[in-house]
């Protein structure tokens, strides 16, 4: 590469889109790292629907217009891949599993895993998800008095999230390993975020503190995944079974002929993608219900009218209000706060040419707060979703071919956990509405409540 070409690669590419200057970015450096959600909100308010960041080389654009978002994620998805810092950092933990994979072979893995998330299969694992919820609720809230107790419901939803993935997708009771797996996934997720934001990428083998901790978390995740795989193989051998390892995700992966490394990548992907997100979403949903007692009572009334256990699928008809609460909570607190793509070829966005290599950053957090699509965007109004129609500018699970494979499972799990929890418990904000401040929304792999979500939990029937 000539010196001139190299110098050119160091310059930002001007595509005629406004945005902060390098000086603005340097001044905002700390807030970009500490609170990216607020930073992104500020730049989009200041510069509009498309914002250009001053990075060397190909443009980096924040896209808030639903038409541009649809173009990148759906209509022109073939031209926009996952070769971004965000997914490279994730791949350091998950390997090229379904979520992080930037390879065309992703589609083969997706097809292979899909039956584990089909409607019929989800109907069959409803009991497992309910059991995960009941076990954790009894263990943590079994002794809750009518007078109430302050409980970190985020810790509770994390335990349920991990156990539900283990039971439903791997037919494995992860409770023995839960503590270590939770610690390893949380640590790995934190480190992934740190790597994704680091401005100076370092080789994986350099012994930085982050790299060493990541290696240790990875080893623990590998050990967890290896134990799950070995246990299933042994169970199968014991039963005298031949090729068929079962209908759950683990069975499908083992039957596929994938080697153990690939199976490990998919297992770790599902553990990380499948429990952090649901756990965070549930914690925010419970907070919103604690803040809105009328909406909470309506959920409880709806559940009281529902005969029998709540299924994992088909809530829109059977429990429309509860499902609308979940949809609205996912609008206000979408766990996946940023989705990134890089263009493989020259393309156009909003009629403006953009070169190959352009980075697109899409934030459901921002799109879900557009006042033109969501009047009074900060207000919690489940009514918005009662008619059940698909909404422009609503993408908690992404859009297009890489839409979340666990979407129905996640939505079902959220409704089932709400049912199990709210049937016998009431939630309130500690100290009453006047004294309550929401925990800060911290953008990690998912948007978490910083410091947990302490809510008052009372047994129902109390005054
Ligand atoms: C509320 C819960 C969840 C949210 C908000 C969520 C969000 C998302 C989003 C936004 C994407 C697309 C990312 C992109 O396009 O770059 C995605 C993909 C994915 N999610 Fe989820 N997710 C949730 C639950 C789950 C669960 C429960 C699982 C599995 C057990 C799961 C597994 C995956 C996988 C494997 C992908 C990659 C799919 C592909 O590229 O083919 N997610 N998720």
Give your account of this protein's structure.
By secondary structure, this protein is an alpha+beta fold. The protein has one domain (58-459): Cytochrome p450. Helix content is 52%, strand content 10%. It has 19 helices and twelve strands. The chain has helices at 3-10, 22-27, 29-34, 36-47, 66-75, 85-94, 106-113, 119-124, 126-141, 153-170, 175-197, 209-238, 249-255, 260-291, 293-305, 315-318, 320-332, 364-367, 407-422, and strands at residues 50-53, 60-63, 80-81, 149-152, 339-343, 347-349, 352-354, 359-362, 425-428, 441-443, 447-449, 454-459. A five-stranded mixed sheet has the order 1-2-8-5-3. The chain has a three-stranded antiparallel sheet with strand order 4-12-9. Strand 6 (347-349) and strand 7 (352-354) form a beta hairpin. Helix 10 (153-170) packs antiparallel against helix 14 and helix 11 (175-197) packs antiparallel against helix 12. The radius of gyration is 23 Å and the shape is globular. The relative contact order is 0.16. Protoporphyrin IX containing FE (HEM) binds at residues 98-99, 110, 165, 169, 269-270, 273-274, 277-278, 281, 335-336, 339, 396-398, 402, 404-406, 409-410. Protoporphyrin IX containing FE binds at residues 98-99, 110, 165, 169, 269-270, 273-274, 277-278, 281, 335-336, 339, 396-398, 402, 404-406, 409-410.
